[in-house]
Amino acid sequence: MYDIKNKSNNSNNLNVNKPVPFIGKGFQPKTRSWMGYFVFFIIIFVLELGTSTGVISSLTLPKPSDVLETIIQLFQSGLLFKHLVPSILRLVIGALIGISLGISIGTLIGLFSYFRSGLVPVIAAIFPIPKIALLPLFVIWFGIGEGSKYALIALGSFTPTVVATYGAVDNVDRTLIRMGQSFGLSWISIVYKIVLPGAMPGILSGLRISLAISIILLVAAEMLGAEYGIGAYILEAGSLYDLERLFAGVTILSLLGITVSVFVTKLEQKILKWR
Length: 275
What we know:
By secondary structure, the protein is mainly α. It is built from eleven helices and no strands.
C-alpha cells in the first residue's frame, strides 16, 4: 500500500513539474511578405486575361500591360518626375505642418485639463467636416497657389492626429505614472519617460491614418489650379477619357501610398523596438 501511494505521489509530482505546452501561437502574427506580392500578381493576371480576351471591355478598364507601358513612357519622357516631385513636396510640407501641430496640441489636451475643456469641443466640431468642402474657402483665403494646397493637407492631417494623440495620452497606464511619482521623478521626466513612450503606439497609428487622408486631399487640391502634380495629371487624363493615363496616375498614387505605409512601418519598428 505504501509503495502504491509513493508511486502515485511521484507521478503527481512529475505531472506538476511537467511544463505546459504553449498553444497560443495563433496570436503571434508572422511576416509573410510574399503573400502580398502573390495577391497582387493574381489580381493583375486576372485583369490582363479578362481585358485580353474581351470579357472585360476595354472601354471600362485598360490592360495592365498598357498601363505599365504608359508609366514607362512617362518615366522616359521625364513627365513622371515633373508631376511626382511637386506632389511629394506638397504632401511632405502639408503633412508635417498638420502632424506636428496635431501631436503638440493633442499632448496638451491629454496633459492639461484647461486645454482639454477648451479645445475638445472645437476639435469635435471640426473633425466631421469634409475637408474637401473647405477647399474653395482656402482658395479665397490663401489664393489658388501652393498656400491653399498646404492648408488643406495640413488641416486634413491635423484632426486625426490630434484625436489619436490625446486618446493615446489618456490610455497610458496610470499605475506607471504613480510608480514614477513614488520614485520621485519630476513632472517633465514623467512626461518624457513614461507618458510619451506609452502613448507612442497610438500616435503612430494616428500618423498612418493622417498620411492616408493627406494623399486623398493632395489629389483633390491638385485638381484645382495646379499645372503639375499627380492630381492634375489624373484630371487631365479623365477629361480626355484616356484610360491608360488615368490608371497610370492611379497606380502611381497607389505606389505612393504603399511607400508611405512602409515608411510608417519602419518608423514604428525603430521607435517601438522596446515592445
